[in-house]
């Protein structure tokens, strides 16, 4: 069996090699040199037809003989950093894994194909016949039946009609195409591995291109691919039709067909607000902007298009509305930038806290706070509308930047501090570790971005910005005590109580508390600091007096025995307390 299979493979191999001799391709598109290149490449890629043989009546399938380990040639000068061509990833898919028999209803029967013919009834007969070189199969008592170029889906009807023209009564017929004869096709032009490849007549163009490694994205055309037979173009493909609309014409290949990939045409680079920011090949050297819009699909927000390139009279740089661009002529080497250049005339703001109605509002630019608040309904008994404040994104960014700058300065001062002795070096190392832990925690804290707009029941009429969150705090009877106290908790407001009373009700100061200065976060978002002297609390004004809804923050004391950068760390602790209303140890 092994010797028989080897002999059969050898005969098929000889048949394939003989079929490629003596062919004369004199045409404009594929030169004799290109075809000779393909023939020479084929010598190192012999056709393995054993994968198409039958074993016990079952196909052993076909493997992918393409070697995808190759690389494309060097990138042309000037294309470094440019996006890839549209369709460059087409040959990275797995479409080369076809079904085992390789047949489809449109396959045209060719010499060498095997057909199963079964008859029962008055005549019982079952046989497998081979299509001869004249395109016929021979059935005893019926004679030759012409089946060449008959589609696979019609083979049963064609053969059945011929049999029943002889056996007219009580004979049933079933005909099935078993195997298809492999064909050998040349692939030439700018592909990774031009040469000779085996396949089935019903295989798609993409299958053979995949076997050849795919189209060279730097030099090959995705829009001009010809299938040539005896020097004449049988069919021409534009793979953009397949990529955009899924259109791929079927074609029945024959031995010595040539798939010729043309040289890459004019290319235009698309950048910016487009769904397909690639390089696109033009059908002609010049094309309208409308064609590019169809393939690149700019985003709906795109308003303008910038075009840079070269013309015969020198470089150009134009900037025009996207509507006018559809009539603009682009040419080889142009760079097209789709841009969103229309500023929004409205902004969105959010309402939080105690209010009625919707929480999001869309208002015109330059709208001020009181203009919007006149449309926001509140319950005077529930909302503390005299303590309104705003959280603003730009302020968050500024506060974060200031804190990060202070932390960076602290790290530099600690890590670059000189040491005059081994003992001092050990102290510096311990200090650096403590500072590193403090910096890591501090960087994780997010500022609130508060903008103080109210005081003594009066609200400033400031201009709103995109993304502002307007906080209308609810009325409350509580005072929050947090930070370096033994029992952080909420305490009912007592108009006769002092700051020291609230600290005492929270269990008193902890061992690490800064008991000489305390931060007060008022209901309107303002943070003030009060100090103690001879047991009395005092501040710059009446701002140190507590009101319902205020928060008392007891800050930590920096150990001057361990850390030298006490001043810097204290400043950062205060910055975080103001920006985020939290205490950092």
Descriptive labels:
585 residues, alpha+beta, wza like fold, Outer membrane lipoprotein wza fold like, 5 domains, six-stranded mixed β-sheet, five-stranded mixed β-sheet, 32 strands, elongated, disordered N terminus
How would you explain this protein's 3D organization?
With 585 residues, this protein is α+β, with helices and mostly antiparallel strands. The protein has five domains: 148 residues, no CATH class; 66 residues, wza like domain (wza like fold); 73 residues, Roll (Outer membrane lipoprotein wza fold like); 125 residues, no CATH class; 105 residues, Roll (Outer membrane lipoprotein wza fold like). Helix content is 23%, strand content 29%. It contains twelve helices and 32 strands. The strands form nine sheets. The protein has a six-stranded mixed beta sheet, sandwiched between helices. Strands 9-8-12-10-11 form a five-stranded mixed beta sheet. Helix 9 packs antiparallel against helix 10 and helix 9 packs antiparallel against helix 12.
First-to-last CA distance: 85 Å
Residue share in β-strands: 25-35%
Q: Class by helix and strand content?
A: alpha+beta
Radius of gyration: 41 Å
Quantity of strands, as a count: 32
Shape: elongated
Low-confidence stretches: 1-29, 41-70
Number of helices: 12
Largest sheet: spatial strand order: 28-27-32-29-30-31
- Major sheet description: 6 strands, mixed
Look at the structure and give the mean pLDDT.
79
- Share of residues in helices: 10-25%
Whole-number count of domains: 5
């Amino acid at each position: 069996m092994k010797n028989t299979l080897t002999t059969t493979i050898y005969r098929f191999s000889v048949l394939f090699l003989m079929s490629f001799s003596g062919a004369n391709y004199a045409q404009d598109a594929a030169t004799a040199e290109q075809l000779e290149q393909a023939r020479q490449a084929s010598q190192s890629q012999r056709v393995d037809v054993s994968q198409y043989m039958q074993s016990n009546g079952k196909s052993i399938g076909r493997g992918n003989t393409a070697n995808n380990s190759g690389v494309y040639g060097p990138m042309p000068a000037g294309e470094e950093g440019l996006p890839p061509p549209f369709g460059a990833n087409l040959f990275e898919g797995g479409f080369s894994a076809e079904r085992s028999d390789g047949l489809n209803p449109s396959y045209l029967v060719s010499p060498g194909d095997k057909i199963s013919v079964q008859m029962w009834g008055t005549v019982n007969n079952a046989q497998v016949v081979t299509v001869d070189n004249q395109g016929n199969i021979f059935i005893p008592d019926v004679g030759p039946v012409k089946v060449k170029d008959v589609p696979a889906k019609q083979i049963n009807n064609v053969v059945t009609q011929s049999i029943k023209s002889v056996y007219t009564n009580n004979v049933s017929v079933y005909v099935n195409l078993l195997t298809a004869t492999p064909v050998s096709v040349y692939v030439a032009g700018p592909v990774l591995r031009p040469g000779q490849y085996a396949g089935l007549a019903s295989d798609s163009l993409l299958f053979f291109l995949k076997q050849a490694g795919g189209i060279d994205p730097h030099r090959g055309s995705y829009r001009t691919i010809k299938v040539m037979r005896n020097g004449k173009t049988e069919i021409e493909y534009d793979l953009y039709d397949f990529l955009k609309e899924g259109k791929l014409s079927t074609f029945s290949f024959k031995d010595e067909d040539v798939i010729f990939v043309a040289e890459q045409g004019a290319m235009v680079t698309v950048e910016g607000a487009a769904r397909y920011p690639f390089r696109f090949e033009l059908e002609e050297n010049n094309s309208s902007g409308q064609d590019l819009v169809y393939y690149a699909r700019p985003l709906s927000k795109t308003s303008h298009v910038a075009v840079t390139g070269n013309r015969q009279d020198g470089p150009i740089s134009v900037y025009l509305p996207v509507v006018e661009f559809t009539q603009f002529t682009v040419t080889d080497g142009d760079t097209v930038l789709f841009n969103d250049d229309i500023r929004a005339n409205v902004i969105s703001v959010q309402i939080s806290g105690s209010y009625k109605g919707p929480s999001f509002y869309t208002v015109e630019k330059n709208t001020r706070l009181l203009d919007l608040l006149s449309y926001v309904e509140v319950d005077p008994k529930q909302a503390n509308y005299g303590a309104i404040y705003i959280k603003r994104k730009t302020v968050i960014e500024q506060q974060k930047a200031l804190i990060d700058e202070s932390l960076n300065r602290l790290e530099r001062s600690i890590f670059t501090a000189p040491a005059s002795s081994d003992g001092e070096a050990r102290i510096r190392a311990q200090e650096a570790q403590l500072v590193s832990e403090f910096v890591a925690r501090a960087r994780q804290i997010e500022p609130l971005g508060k903008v103080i707009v109210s005081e003594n029941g009066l609200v400033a009429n400031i201009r709103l910005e995109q993304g502002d969150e307007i906080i209308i705090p609810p009325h409350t009877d509580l005072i929050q005590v947090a930070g370096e106290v033994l029992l952080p908790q909420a305490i009912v407001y007592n108009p006769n109580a002092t700051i020291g009373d609230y600290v005492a009700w929270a269990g008193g100061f902890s061992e690490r508390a800064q008991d000489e200065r305390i931060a007060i976060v008022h209901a309107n978002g303002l943070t003030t600091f009060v100090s103690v002297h001879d047991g009395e609390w005092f501040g710059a004004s009446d701002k140190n007096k507590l009101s319902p809804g205020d928060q008392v923050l007891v800050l930590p004391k920096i150990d001057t025995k361990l850390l030298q950068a006490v001043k810097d760390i204290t400043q950062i602790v205060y910055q975080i307390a103001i920006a985020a209303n939290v205490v950092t140890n």
